[in-house]
Amino acid sequence: MSATVERDLRTGRAVWLERKLPVIHTKTLTRAVSCDVLVVGAGISGAIISEALSDAGLNVVIADRRGAVQGSTVASTALLQYEIDTPLSVLSERIGRDRAERIWRRSRLAVDALRERTRALRINAEQATRDSLYLSGNVLDAAGLQAETEARRRAGFEVAFLKSAEVFEQYGITGRSAIVGRDNYMADPRLLAAGYLNAAIARGARLYAPVEVTDVEASTSGVTAATKDGPEINAKSLVFATGYEMAKRVPKKGNKIISTWVIATKPQPRKIWPTGCIIWEANDPYLYIRTTPEGHVICGGEDAEIADADERDALNEAKTATLVRKLGKLLPMIDAEADFSWSGSFGDSKTGTPTIGPVPKMPNCYSAMGYGGNGITFSMMAGQMLRGMIAGTGDPDSDLVSFTRRF
Ligand SMILES: Cc1cc2nc3c(=O)[nH]c(=O)nc-3n(C[C@H](O)[C@H](O)[C@H](O)COP(=O)(O)OP(=O)(O)OC[C@H]3O[C@@H](n4cnc5c(N)ncnc54)[C@H](O)[C@@H]3O)c2cc1C
Q1: Residue to substitute in 13, 76, 233, 312 for testing ligand 1 pocket (most ligand atoms within 8 angstroms of CB)
Q2: Which of 149, 352, 387, 395 could form a disulfide with 52 if both were Cys (CB 3.0 to 4.6 A apart)?
Q3: Nearest CA to ligand 1 atom 32
Q4: Distance in angstroms (rounded) separating the CA atoms of residues 128 and 80
Q5: What is the 8-class DSSP label of residue 20?
């Protein structure tokens, strides 16, 4: 029995697998070990959290049942946006304007921190800063986007509203108005995770894999993790950074697993739209689009309420064809044929916001559930917040993401 749900997280070949990862030193767990913090999961969340905790001077052990960077992170399209899936104007209605503005601002800080920290650590993850173009759709039409522009300006965000004629003139996209968001970010998610893991390991963090955590005994004096066929790991605190394989004893908090599909075209650097900005839509379901440094166009979307991997994969061919068709229609200047296609489980949250913090009824245990389209932005938010919570300084926004929040 595992401490977490087991899933077939992804299928197909993500474009990132063309790149070789740097060596990540992994140890074999042959005897019981002790540490300040055990981080379960070596994807982008575990990597960023371990880097933050080791930077705070804590002795960190990371355990992963697959190995470093083998989970959902490989499937990510890694549009690293501060703009949360749920528009600020809509989120304000659901959770109140004050809270909605605070979580949006915190998301902006997380993207800025990710950019700054990645630079400071000299990680090369083919990262780039890009504006974003948020196109009108069935969630927000032109009037809705105008109201959203005002809501964002009020909260302090630098945004511009473009009428459909301006969108056509500047980007060659017809019939859509848009909001331009500034200075979002993108990267190769595998290289990014490898860079953060290696930064933590260079500071003394130990990565053990494959090691499956099967049970967690938590008390006010510390945590003991049992492992499959292996010795125990003793820690003062434990962090579940297990992505879409939720820990069984952690409350779901309204989060659920759905499915998403992605294609990447062949490289076509000369056909990329002006600025090569990130493109996404105020639509349900929506498309999310970016480029790679070689000029592949990556397009994801077609999300469906399917948790089962076999059911998801039965739709792979049809969903790929739909993505090719929709991408070609939206961006007629590119060749939308799919050179790569893949699918993955995806964590959906009710408000597009994450759940991060102490797990109820499990003393000294924390969870980072960065569910919603901004998963990696939320990995950084979790790194910042858990550093404060575990190192003792706390976090001013912990109430917005805690398990005990009322929304
Ligand atoms: C197709 C797709 C597109 C996406 N696009 C974006 C995007 O554009 N922007 C964005 O910000 N986010 C995006 N996301 C979301 C983002 O990729 C995820 O939030 C992120 O990769 C999750 O990282 P993680 O480290 O939490 O999980 P993972 O990478 O899955 O890592 C979790 C690890 O935990 C390990 N584990 C689980 N249980 C145990 C156990 N019991 N013992 C030991 N180890 C265990 C697993 O083996 C795994 O390696 C996308 C996701 C998908 C699937």
Answers
A1: 76
A2: 387
A3: 242
A4: 10
A5: P
Pair 297, 326: CB distance under 8 Å: no
Amino acid at position 85, single letter: D
Round to whole Å and give the CA distance between 38 and 237.
6
Q: Is the peptide bond before 285 cis (omega within 30 degrees of 0)?
A: yes
Ligand 1 center from residue 243 Cα (angstroms) = 4
C-beta 348 within 6 A of ligand 1: no
Beta-bridge partners for 341? 263
> Cα(245) to centroid of ligand 1, in Å?
8
| Ligand 1 proximity of 260 Cβ (cutoff 6 Å) | yes
What pTM was estimated for this model as a whole? 0.98
Q: Looking at ligand 1, which residue's alpha carbon is closest to its atom 49?
A: 71
Say if residues 62 and 197 touch (Cβ distance below 8 Å).
Answer: yes
Does residue 79 line the site of ligand 1, with CB under 6 A? Answer: yes
Is the distance from CB of 111 to CB of 255 less than 8 angstroms? no
Q: Does residue 88 line the site of ligand 1, with CB under 6 A?
A: no
What angle, 0 to 180 degrees and rounded to 10, lies between the N-to-C axes of helices 88-95 and 142-154?
Answer: 70
Interval 33-80: pLDDT, tens: 999 999 999 999 999 999 999 999 999 999 999 999 999 999 999 999
Six token digits for residue 112: 């800025």
Tokens of 137: 């759709």
Instruction: For residues 178 and 140, give the distance between their C-alpha atoms in angstroms, rounded to a whole number.
Output: 10
pLDDT in tens, 209-240: 999 999 999 999 999 999 998 899 999 999 99
Question: In angstroms, rounded to a whole number, what is the distance separating the alpha carbons of residues 285 and 394?
Answer: 37
What is the torsion angle, in degrees rounded to the nearest 10, for the CA atoms of residue 133, residue 139, residue 142 and residue 148? Answer: -70
Assign 3-state DSSP to the chain and report helix, strand, coil percentages, each to 5.
35, 25, 40
Nearest CA to ligand 1 atom 12: 375
What Cα–Cα distance (Å) separates residue 295 from each residue in 55, 264, 278, 348? 35, 10, 13, 29
Q: Ligand 1 pocket test: which of 17, 64, 85, 118 has the largest number of ligand atoms within 8 Å of its C-beta?
A: 64
Closest residue by Cα to atom 17, ligand 1, is 76
Q: Are 323 and 332 in contact (CB under 8 A)?
A: no
* Euclidean distance between CA atoms 264 and 367, whole angstroms: 32
